[in-house]
Amino acid sequence: MQFDLVLAGKQAVDEDNSQVAIRVAELLDLPHVNSVIKLDLSEDKKSAKCLREVDGDRDVAETSMPAIITTQQGLNEPRYPSLKGIMGAKKKPITDWKAADLGLDAATIGVNGAKVEIVTIEPPPAASTR
Fold first, then answer.
1. Is residue 67 helix, strand or coil?
2. Tens of pLDDT along 104-129?
3. What does the buried/exposed string (b/e) look like for 6-23 if buried means 16 or more CB atoms within 10 Å of the residue's CB?
């Protein structure tokens, strides 16, 4: 597939690991910038300037394109779809990709290929009062 930019969320809500986008960038040998709150593409679309939040401060990073960017709240203002757009979206086909379609061995992905197994998740014990 050809692409210029991949946008991903900063972190997942399950494990809060912040790993997927960065691992994908490493596997594809692409530059990546994380926690971006403002993104400016150059005129020729060959580079981007990224404002990001780092340890309570702000930092500017520049990257060549194509790149993978993880986003942080504040990057955009959401647009709400019109009724016409919602109705039109219902008619759009959804492509269902299987592991084989992507040249992947099903034994190496998902639960079968997981290197970590979560056995249980429990809240911490309540703090005792004295």
1. strand
2. 998 988 888 888 888 888 888 888 76
3. bebebbeeeeeeeeebbe
Cβ–Cβ under 8 Å, residues 7 and 67: no
- Burial (CB count <10 Å: 0-12, 13-18, 19+), residue 2: exposed
Sheet holding 47-54, edge to edge: 5-9, 67-71, 32-41, 47-54, 57-64
- Chain CA centroid to CA 108, Å: 21
Sign of CA dihedral 47, 49, 50, 55: positive
Q: What is the pLDDT of residues 12-48, one digit of tens each?
A: 666 667 788 999 999 999 999 998 999 999 999 999 9
Q: What is the pTM of this model?
A: 0.62
12 CA to centre of own chain: 8
User: Could you count the other beta carbons within 10 Å of the beta carbon of residue 70?
Assistant: 23
